[in-house]
Amino acid sequence: MTPSPRPPHLSIVATMYRSAPTIAEFHRRVSAAAAEITDDYEIVLVNDGSPDDSAEIAAHLCATDARVILVDLSRNFGHHAAILAGLSQARGALIYLTDIDLEEQPEWLALFYQTAQDQKADVVYGIQQKRVGSRIDNFLGRALWKLLNVGSLVRIPADQMTCRLMSRRYLDGLLQVRDKVLYLGGLFPWAGFRQVPLPLVKATRKNGTRSTYGMGRKLRQAVDSVTSFTAAPLTMFFLTGLAVWIGSIVYGGYILARKLLTPDQIEGGFTSLMFSIWFLGGLIIVGIGLVGQYLSKIFQETKDRPIYIIRAVIGRDT
User: Fold this and answer.
1) What pTM was estimated for this model as a whole?
2) Cα 38 to Cα 314: distance, rounded to the nearest angstrom
3) pLDDT tens, position by position, 153-171
């Protein structure tokens, strides 16, 4: 029986979606950065059902560079699922996860490696010193981080970036998670071990590429992150309902007292009546929708479908 190849010292993982303009430059720069640390490395590229020719470009790299492995998913499963697909295929003692769009610069790898050595950390993760999005995006992002930390059992760092260097023991622990509704921003700190933040500033995009995260995807990600990682919205809704119930009792007692003391001064109020109907009706609808979101997550978890399907793995032994 032929023994399996020895695992490399370093694995570099990146996902691809509409990434054709940056793949070649990313490969060149990240290969140079990895070579400064070790010549024993691999580059795992995950094609997340990209509609452009990202898979073809990556397959060509596999043919010209034996260190490149292409993990081709059967369709687009989403960024977080693609990340887990790549991490599951990484064999290195150290695993460096990064984006392929070059906003997270490949040359940072040496800085992550040195920080991990100096701090004796299992994880070194990037955080944004300055957010590069619009004012609305930045405001919503800050609000989301605060909401997540309200009911979370672990502190979720704000302004996390994708890039992070991880030890093998940390990644093995992380891959034991079987969540179907993924929020890696919460799972990364939840897994524990010694984690060290590294403040960085993203580079501007090149080659006219744009972020594939539109407002719709951001909103869906925000809903998934909140409902899959904290029950705080349910708690706040319960407390709001409790406050409205107590307030209604107090106000009802006030109306009754005025009616008994000064019956001629009490007048019916159409405006106050409509306000009460709209307020309570809206509150009930929001509550039903909120509970529905949590029930939908339970439904997805109980179906126990795989979060991704790999069509082919090109490179390594193929």
Assistant:
1) 0.74
2) 23
3) 677 787 889 999 999 999 9
CA 17 – CA 110 distance, rounded (Å)? 26
pLDDT per residue over 182-240, tens digit each? Answer: 778 888 988 889 999 999 988 776 555 555 555 555 556 555 555 566 666 666 766 67
Q: How far is CA 75 from CA 48, 71, 179, 310, in A?
A: 6, 12, 19, 9
